[in-house]
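Lecture 7 notes: from sequence to structure.

We start with a single chain of 317 residues. Read the sequence below before looking at the structure.
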Amino acid sequence: MKKKTITALLMCLLMIFIIAACSGNSEPAEDQTAGDVQNVEEQPAVFTGDLIISADEAVALIGNEDVIFVDCTGEASKGTVKGAVATSWQELCTCSDEYGAAGDDTWGKIPEPADLAERLGALGLDKNKEIITLGHTVDGWGEDARVAWELRAAGYENVRIVDGGIDAVLAAGAEKQSGGSEPVPCEVAIDEIDKTHVIETADLVNNFDQYKIVDVRTDAEYNGATKYGEAKGGHIKGSVFVPYLDLFQKDGTLKSNEEIIAMFEDAGVEKTDKVVAYCTGGIRSAYVQMVLEMCGYGETYNYDQSYWNWCVNNEVE
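Now the structure, written as tokens:
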């Protein structure tokens, strides 16, 4: 009897031990699962689009002979990505003294095809290669987008900007050099400027009521501050205000597509609208145009001369 009793007790203890062990193993698994879900929920939003590339993806392409990096900051002497050629949005526009000054009718536009082809050829920007432009986001005007926007108008089919700009690429481990690399000149042919996403002052004046006009400058500029030599302060009459800086997260990368769409819809800008973005000189607004295009807005335009030119001869409020 004693042996049977002892055996029964041992069996009970064994069962209790097995149940406790199984139970103990399952709890951490459940905690781990909950932690994984929480971590996923806390991941930052990611913007997607065929005109943009992540910093990590860009770093992986450095040194690829079929890819050209273009530093558009105008500050390459302070340090840029190894192998990048350097330019600025001004160097690719009608911004020299022969065109007058900011606000004049001939200043700040896309050059004529032959002129632009010569400038791009001198930079070695071969149309058969992928062009990745580098600029600043929250610390600049989105110069990379202005250059990319112009390249697309010139017929380049494989152009992307980096999410987060040059700072994100360097932070992702890109090797750095002082000053731009020496370009390898090439022949560039441009038959005509593609104006699918381009609008000029005359077009906007003549068809003003057809467009939803979006001012993407700062609050101070929208409300009258003249920070960059504007002829007068204010904004285009009837324009809605969606600041360029509101596109970005704190780290300088773009907010998600859904967040950006919601932001514009809250401002009354729908995907069915013909949307014209403008800023001071068509730089920040070029970035906004490309972002809206990637977000599914069907008709989007960058006003290249923007407020500098508009306020000289047209009504503002």
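Confidence is low (pLDDT under 50) at residues 16-40. Keep this in mind for problem set 3.
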